[in-house]
Design goal:
The structure holds 2 protein chains of 2 kinds. By secondary structure, chain A is mainly α. Chain A has 7 helices and no strands. Chain B has 7 helices and 13 strands. Classes of the chains: A mainly alpha, B alpha+beta. Chains A and B meet through helix 1, helix 3, helix 4, helix 5 and helix 6 of A and helix 1, helix 3, strand 1, strand 6 and strand 8 of B.
Chain lengths: 188, 282
């Protein structure tokens, strides 16, 4: 895979994510364009490059958000492992594959973010960075399941369009054909 | 790189990421947080401008008003009458309105900065086009003509300052309920309602929450939809006292206590869609 093309893709996708997040949102959830880029890379790139690419995309998105560093890097790396485990059985260029993999990836990221929100709830702090001194402890507010699920839905709805567009530019990435396990049914 | 070695490297990276996200305290990981937001400005700024124009066409402000024409005409006529009265009182109002005086002095302490984009994740934050070279520092307060926006959390020297919005889940500020209008003597101004200071917690999705307010006290004091929530925090600069955080949307009785309500508050405009803000950097 040509890494400079990958970084251009990451730059465009993350820049767009940052720009339109506040405008294109339903119930506080904006589509996750970076995840769609990750799915495209995982489906087509060789294994090592794909996993590293997923991790790097997540890390860059962490640096552009107020998430703890490493959360999305871990989530996208996990998505890369999951998608690589099943993509051999699918037609990589079919829109239904893109929808299915986006759904798998979206639900995985949603689960990791919600688990993180439950495990390490974000405790509120004042403008000075201190916890507010209260007689009654304040309950931490966790990410909303409905908002995260809406994010998955929006991402899946956009997947055929975004990944379809990326398919057109597939040659620019210089993906090498890698060995795929033969379909046993077709050999008979 | 052999297959075996790459697996070790990838496993180590994943472990490091998991440790950073799930184990290490944020104050440690934030120190090693390079600020690269400014690098994305060349693409984020034009895309945001296009998105704003499309939104203005598809969902123009005021399109959500479902009132009848007669109700709107009647309100317009009433507003014309009020406008005539206010025009003649303008010079007296500038002295009476503490809020206007403070805003006047605030303007001299602020510098406008453009908004490049929002949060790349699921939180409420804005990326400003500015850097430490232009005088931005962590902890600076950010406002706009409608009220308070938030606090700058991280500034890079490369460009880009991440501002945590007041509606972010992690944000807390002390506030007070107030109404803007005429008192018994007919004087126009901001009147604090007779309630103790409250703790305002960002809720995400452009909203804030005031938890566990005694319902009877709130109703008696006059808290209702449209009531202002203003800053009343001793940790904040005195100039920002009484600056508007938002307006009350509704009050919901708590499930665990019928005597208490949670008050949902929303800023007058969606802070995530701002294009320019003022930073108190002087």
């Amino acid at each position: 895979m040509r890494w400079y093309v990958y970084f251009i893709l990451a730059y465009i996708v993350l820049g767009a994510q940052v720009a339109v997040g506040g405008f294109v949102s339903v119930r506080g959830a904006a589509p996750n364009l970076a995840l769609l880029g990750v799915i495209f890379i995982v489906l087509h790139a060789p294994r090592d490059a794909a996993l590293l690419g997923c991790f790097a995309m997540g890390l860059l998105q962490d640096l552009l958000s107020t998430h703890p560093v490493g959360l999305l890097a871990f989530a996208y790396g996990f998505v890369g492992l999951l998608v690589r485990a099943v993509h051999q059985m699918m037609h990589r260029d079919h829109p239904l594959t893109h929808v299915a993999m986006s759904l798998l990836g979206g639900l995985t990221v949603m689960a990791i973010v919600l688990i993180h929100g439950w495990w390490r709830p974000v405790l509120p702090h004042t403008a000075l960075g201190e916890a507010p001194a209260l007689a009654t402890p304040m309950a931490a507010l966790r990410p909303s399941v409905a908002t995260e699920f809406m994010r998955v839905v929006l991402t899946v709805l956009l997947s055929p369009l975004v990944i379809g567009l990326l398919q057109w530019a597939k040659k620019l990435f210089g993906f090498r054909q890698e060995y795929r396990r033969a379909n046993l049914r077709s050999s008979h | 790189m052999s297959r075996l070695r790459f697996q070790h490297v990838f496993a180590a990276l994943m472990l490091l990421a998991a440790l950073s996200a799930f184990v290490l305290p944020p104050r440690l990981t934030s120190r090693a947080h390079p600020e690269i937001q400014g690098l994305f400005a060349p693409i984020a700024w034009p895309v945001r401008a296009v998105a704003e124009r499309v939104m203005a066409r598809v969902n123009p402000p005021g399109a959500a008003d479902a009132r009848s024409k007669e109700a709107i005409f009647k309100e317009n006529e009433e507003l014309r009458q009020v406008n005539v009265t206010l025009q003649s009182e303008l010079s007296q109002l500038r002295e009476a309105m503490n809020l206007w005086d403070k805003l006047g002095s605030l303007k001299e302490r602020c510098t406008p900065f453009a908004v490049v984009g929002g949060d790349a994740g699921a939180r409420d934050s804005l990326l400003l086009r500015g850097s430490s070279v232009e005088g931005l520092r962590d902890g600076m307060f950010v406002i706009h003509p409608g009220g308070v926006v938030g606090v700058i959390g991280r500034v890079g020297w490369l460009g880009g300052a991440q501002t945590q919005l007041v509606t972010d889940r992690n944000f807390v500020v002390r506030g007070a309920f107030a109404n803007y209008g005429r008192d018994d003597a007919g004087k126009l101004g901001l009147r604090r309602l007779r309630l103790p200071a409250v703790l305002v917690n960002g809720l995400g999705n452009g909203e804030m929450l005031v938890q566990r307010v005694v319902r009877d006290d709130a109703v008696q004091a006059g808290v209702a939809a449209g009531t202002w929530l203003v800053v009343n925090d001793p940790d904040w600069p005195a100039e920002l006292r009484d600056q508007r955080l938002g307006v009350v949307v509704d009050m919901t009785t708590r499930r665990d206590s019928a005597l208490h309500v949670d008050v949902r508050v929303r800023p007058p405009s969606d802070l995530r869609q701002l294009r320019w803000v003022m930073v108190m950097n002087k």
